[in-house]
Amino acid sequence: MIGCALLVRNYVSNGGPKEVTPSYSEVMTKAQAGQVKDVTIEGATMVGHFAGGEQFQATIPGHQPAMFTTFRDHGVNVTVREQNSNVWLNTVISVMPFVLVATPLTVLALLLYVVRRSRSAPPTGA
After folding, report:
1. What is the mean pLDDT of residues 77-92?
2. Of 51, 82, 98, 126, whose CA is between 20 and 30 Å from 29?
3. pTM for this model (two decimals)
């Protein structure tokens, strides 16, 4: 009981598990040595845990098909997630600043056009 309390206190005082950022080749070397427990791959980012429980994050350089073979051959649990592929949402978000700036300017330009036109129009009626 006291041992569990000391472990919990030590875990909390150290801020929990630390995340390290090894290079891609370091992760692959550790995987070949059986020191990688699991990885989650999303786009060019790999997040996982070493056998000792330490969390890591690494960047995958380019296309690395042999990586999956290495992970499979050394018992690494691999999860692949699709990158955010919502093109419409990304497009709307990227266009919003232009819309927010252009809309008031367009309204102002139309208002000035109407005011000028009404001032320069010849008077009607007799």
Report:
1. 78
2. 82
3. 0.54
